[in-house]
């Protein structure tokens, strides 16, 4: 046998495992790319790290499979229950094609600025994947005010996306984060659009605003077989306090509640004694640390305030949602108790429609990636997220 043949044979014998591995690594995506489900799986595996990690890299793999979308600042006029209003938003449109799916991104309180790099990357990647993404900026949420008018804005934003010439109006949905996830679910039940909403993603939202507020106030989570101490973040306490304070009409009451629960100052006994019954009911709810007292304290709150907060809670409207639901919650969420998503799951139990998918993860802190977890948690939760993104991309394609 010629010497060069012997040498070649020796190289193959020594390196065949590496050659086989390279064939799998590079050949599998090529093989998968030959059919729709395979293409979506490959794209999901490329987009997920880009969306979640957001690490500055000299080269982004998404550039290999997509072009940068068009981004346009728009102003949307709409009629609210308080009169004509406008809201600013960024519209991200895929570089090519028509009849795309559409999504309204519903943010929390306060929302990220429209030029925030994290937000821009998520919106751009969504548009690269083939969806027209609208990202509105709510001044109310920026002031940490969660009001019914927010639903009017979301409905108008949804209809605005439906009217875009590049959008298939039958494939428009919501993606909501934190408070925005809950508001998206409420908007999806609104009779003006309920029949048209294709899907809703709610990440880290609440089911019942008042039970979520009670957990934040008492530092305790109770639901079903869950009975555990919980330490919410200070921001969550401030957001909760503002929602009750904003619904108190008396100026003295409001100033005192702000002094105690926003500024963190002590109130003299004589000032507390001067609170009106409405002001006192809000004070007692916010100051309460006893989970057993929650039910009675909620009954003492002003009826108009509780009715408004109930309206802003999916618990009062989830039965009217016709969209497919994707509900995700961080198991160690320090802003909104993870049990709120369990309440939503229980409310939908046994229903054939809408289809609902639920995931409790440990890979996030509320809605922000948190990757300092054990390897098995990272692997398991990443696989679940990858599958959910795969399902979404199948809808969006």
Write up this protein:
This protein has 397 residues and is of the alpha/beta class. The protein folds into 3 domains: 3-63, no CATH class; 64-208 and 313-396, Alpha/Beta hydrolase fold, catalytic domain (Rossmann fold, 3-Layer(aba) Sandwich), CATH 3.40.50.1820; 210-309, no CATH class. The chain has helices at 3-32, 36-53, 62-65, 117-128, 139-142, 149-162, 179-188, 209-218, 234-245, 251-261, 269-273, 277-287, 294-300, 303-311, 339-348, 375-396, and strands at residues 70-80, 83-93, 100-106, 131-137, 167-177, 197-203, 220-223, 226-229, 324-330, 356-361, 364-365, 368-369. α15 (339-348) links the parallel β9 and β10. The protein starts with a helix and ends with a helix. 39% of the residues are buried.
